[in-house]
Amino acid sequence: MYKVFLVDDEPFILEGLSALVDWEQYGLEVVGHASNGEEAMRIATNLDVDIFITDIFMPRMSGLELIKRLKEKNDAQKFIILSGYNEFEYVKEGMKLGIENYLLKPVNVEELKQTLHSTVNKMQSEAHRKVVTDNLDIIRGNILLRWVSRTIDPKELLERAKVLNIKLSQPYYVVSVIRFSDPNRSSMEADQLAEVHALCRYHLSGIVHVYEFGDLDGDLILIFGCESQDVEAVSFVTNLVRKVLNHVLEDARMSAFATIGSYESTFMEVTESYRNAKNLQEYCSEVSANEIIDYNVMNAGWEQQQTGISLQLEALSRHIESKNKEEAFAYMDQCFQKLQGSKGAKPSDIQHLAVEFMFQIKHAVKNKQFDSKKIFSHLFKIRTLEQLKDHLRDSIEAVIDYLDGERKDDYSPVIKRVLKAIEEQYAKELSLKTLSQELNMNVIYLGQLFLHELSATFSDYVNRYRIEKAKQLLYQTTLKANDIAGKVGYTDPTYFYRKFKLMVGVSPMEYRQREAMQRLDQ
Question: Where is the Response regulatory domain (predicted)?
């Protein structure tokens, strides 16, 4: 039922209105009344009213002022005016405010009933249109998500895009990922995220070839269709993302961090741009709020465009993971020897190079308990290659020292035994239940203890450990992926493939090929 609220400073009018109409017949229910606009504002605030029937002239707050204030809060509410004055100016003002009717006192019952009937029909039509629109928005968001995650066939995407007015004929596409955070909360709730997304949609409305939706992580995703990837197009994308960040900060009082992915020349390669932008979100906890990191600037920055040198930095992460300072330092020195002879490096170029180096160091530290802010604290103050080299060397040393000591000092005796069991038995069937029985502990308590000390569930940690072992076998041996799956504890190769791609971003074979190319480049 729709809810009706009556406002009039004459008690007999309120009583008469309540008795004049069979409200239920129209699907209506009178939920309250007030003698003036101020009282109505106070009482009706928590009643979720659909229709207000109000007088114009009342003490404290007039009916017209009441309508103005309520409209600011909820534009969907309907208003019917009752008045003893047939003044054209009042009628005109009421019409400007979008009232349903202007009824003169004494009230004509049939006219009131007809007005209520038409108002209910109008609300039902609006509700239906909203359902259709909401459903289309849900469908559109789902198709856009399937598009960026490449879980939709190109033919189906083309068919759905026509219906949903998604243009797939642009020469270039680029994806931006915007992650929000509330400084007053550790995490954001779904309704809070929905409000922020709605705010962003409002500020993006009317801009062609920009498609927005929320992904499964709660990030706002923007897909831009561009005519080119020249300076003007890149500037347009960056400025629009900056506009969104500014509105979120000003209107919602929230922080946001944005990343921009690669420019792709076919619509089915949008997934690559999305993946690059999502990967850059790794930096969100390390840089200042309301920053934008652009993959294209990082990837096509000084080390590639101005020097022509392509550094394969993933090897640095491997040396750190193996806790070999000598190899890590030697590799770092090789990189800097290549860079040393280059001229004309701008501070921004060096910063981008610094971020890439530091990302590889952070990637080597799987344990979230490590305070990575220590190694990122001076990152954006670095201006010279010499400063970068010194900072990088100190950071490598700090991280390897941490990795050397983490299993010795940071964990309780029970968790040390669990970790030792994982190291020794990862290739076999492993379960928390079995280990809890061996340790004579409650399985739920053990799981909670593991999560508390490692910031990861037992199954997530084991999967991560197995995938790391699989990566080592892929670049150190010629074993087939199916055989490697069995050697690291996966009895189902399909499940292994799925887990590997989810955690590494590429298939096992693609990873092996990439590692082989990197070794050749070195």
Answer: 3-120
